[in-house]
């Protein structure tokens, strides 16, 4: 990993490069000012990063102060994230070998964990094993909601998670199940006429749009036998602690899996940024901080090493997570070939502006979850969700999970990273050194959008732009 010639501008240093560009641009100051005015006037019509400043901070004041998730909750979500992400990446690869993916493990975890509260026997055991929820207490679930939905003082960044349980108006929920999902997951319980499938689906779509600030407006489907649905949304609007200057965004090549394309590449010099790499030089990593303490973790595999990291849960967690929460760097070598070194450096980051939309269809998602060990929950003969309903409503027959879908979107630009996800689970009835580091993201890469306490809300892969 060459740390010299960081700007590819001959002997000119990074800061001199910026100064030269600024002097050149000043010659066109009048034209630039007029252009900027036009851009600002257009942007104010509703572009997300222009919503701002004091109004966001004022809105955040109404929230209770954020508290970190318990270690148990953090570990459960994180382990599930890295165990499941390669499987969802493989699902996308089967559909499009060179496609991009944005997945929200946190949203999937919350939707399945809420559903698991009504499971018993082997069904509950399989869900607990995959989700890591076997030993979690109600306070652990509540701590996760407080961590995501809480206030981070002085921050323009926002995060939110919302849960809802939609129940056919002929079904009576068990008191314990209703109490748990309401208190531990802050879930809104909605009674609806599932006989009017289109009407219920429309209401669900509006609920998702509201809780993702209109970033997602899904065309929700309700299956013919569906009588209950769990919907989770996760929304993150992360504003960079040190924004990229749009003035320095240029059109440059991106060497994708399908060939070269021209993309908008943004640039910034970060002082004392923790730069990490493995001892075999197969990847390098930076964490671009948001103003609330969260980050966009960007992992840049060396040429020829993308698939071995993206396709292996252990390697993905090793590359994205090792030494990730060490502000002063660390060195670790748990086993030969698995060494990692990180240290604060001056880092020149060049990375593309990008947007990814992903949709994971129900049949593919269920197949993936089955491959991860959850089988009974989707089998109308084996599933046991008897903890969901009261005794008087057992005439509806055995309950099982009939559908699981997730839709996501992420937008990354000079101002920050904004992402949203919804997951719907439908229950059916059977019945700092001298030289800077160059970190140029001009080839396939992986990323994770994390909360201030390190929980991965989103994990994604970019192969082509």
Secondary structure layout plus pairing:
Blueprint: H1 14-26, H2 29-43, H3 54-61, H4 71-95, E1 101-103, H5 105-116, H6 121-131, H7 138-149, E2 158-168, H8 175-184, E3 188-192, H9 197-211, E4 226-239, E5 250-256, E6 259-278, E7 283-289, E8 295-301, H10 306-310, H11 313-321, E9 330-333, E10 339-352, E11 354-360, H12 362-371, E12 399-412, E13 416-429, E14 437-440, E15 445-450, E16 456-462
Brief summary:
This protein has helices at 14-26, 29-43, 54-61, 71-95, 105-116, 121-131, 138-149, 175-184, 197-211, 306-310, 313-321, 362-371, and strands at 101-103, 158-168, 188-192, 226-239, 250-256, 259-278, 283-289, 295-301, 330-333, 339-352, 354-360, 399-412, 416-429, 437-440, 445-450, 456-462. The protein is of the alpha+beta class.
């Amino acid at each position: 990993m060459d740390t010299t010639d960081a700007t590819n501008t001959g002997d000119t240093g990074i800061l001199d490069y910026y100064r030269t560009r600024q002097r050149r641009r000043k010659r066109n100051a009048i034209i630039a000012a007029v252009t900027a005015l036009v851009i600002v006037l257009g942007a104010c019509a509703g572009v997300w990063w222009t919503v701002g400043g004091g109004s966001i901070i004022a809105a955040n004041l109404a929230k209770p102060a954020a508290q970190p998730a318990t270690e148990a909750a953090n570990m459960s979500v994180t382990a599930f994230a890295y165990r499941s992400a390669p499987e969802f990446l493989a699902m996308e690869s089967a559909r499009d070998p060179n496609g991009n993916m944005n997945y929200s493990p946190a949203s999937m975890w919350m939707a399945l964990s809420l559903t698991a509260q009504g499971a018993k026997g082997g069904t509950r055991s399989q869900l607990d094993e995959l989700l890591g929820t076997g030993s979690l207490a109600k306070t652990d679930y509540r701590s996760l909601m407080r961590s995501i939905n809480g206030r981070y003082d002085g921050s323009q960044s926002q995060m939110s998670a919302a849960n809802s349980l939609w129940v056919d108006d002929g079904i009576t929920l068990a008191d314990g199940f209703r109490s748990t999902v309401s208190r531990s997951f802050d879930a809104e319980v909605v009674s609806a006429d599932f006989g009017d499938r289109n009407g219920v689906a429309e209401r669900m779509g509006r609920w998702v749009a509201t809780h993702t600030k209109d970033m997602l407006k899904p065309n929700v489907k309700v299956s013919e036998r569906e009588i209950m649905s769990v919907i989770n949304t996760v929304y993150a609007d992360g504003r960079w602690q040190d924004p990229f200057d749009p003035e320095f965004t240029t059109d440059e090549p991106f060497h994708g899996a399908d060939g070269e394309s021209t993309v908008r590449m943004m640039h910034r010099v970060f002082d004392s940024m923790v730069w990490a790499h493995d001892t075999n030089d197969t990847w390098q990593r930076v964490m671009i901080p948001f103003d609330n303490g969260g980050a966009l973790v960007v992992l840049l595999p060396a040429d020829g090493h993308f698939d071995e990291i993206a396709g292996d849960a252990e390697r993905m967690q090793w590359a994205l997570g090792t030494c990730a929460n060490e502000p002063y760097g660390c060195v670790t070598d748990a086993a030969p070939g698995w060494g990692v070194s990180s240290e604060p450096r001056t880092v020149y980051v060049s990375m593309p502006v990008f947007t990814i939309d992903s949709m994971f269809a129900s049949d593919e998602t269920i197949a993936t979850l089955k491959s991860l060990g959850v089988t009974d929950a989707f089998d109308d003969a084996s599933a046991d969700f008897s903890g969901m309903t009261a005794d008087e409503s057992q005439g509806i027959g055995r309950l099982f999970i009939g559908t699981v879908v997730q839709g996501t979107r992420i937008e990354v630009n000079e101002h920050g990273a904004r992402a949203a996800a919804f997951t719907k689970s439908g229950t059916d009835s059977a019945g700092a050194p001298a030289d800077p580091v160059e970190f140029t993201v001009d080839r396939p890469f992986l990323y994770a959008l994390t909360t201030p306490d390190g929980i991965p809300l989103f994990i994604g892969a970019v192969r082509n732009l």
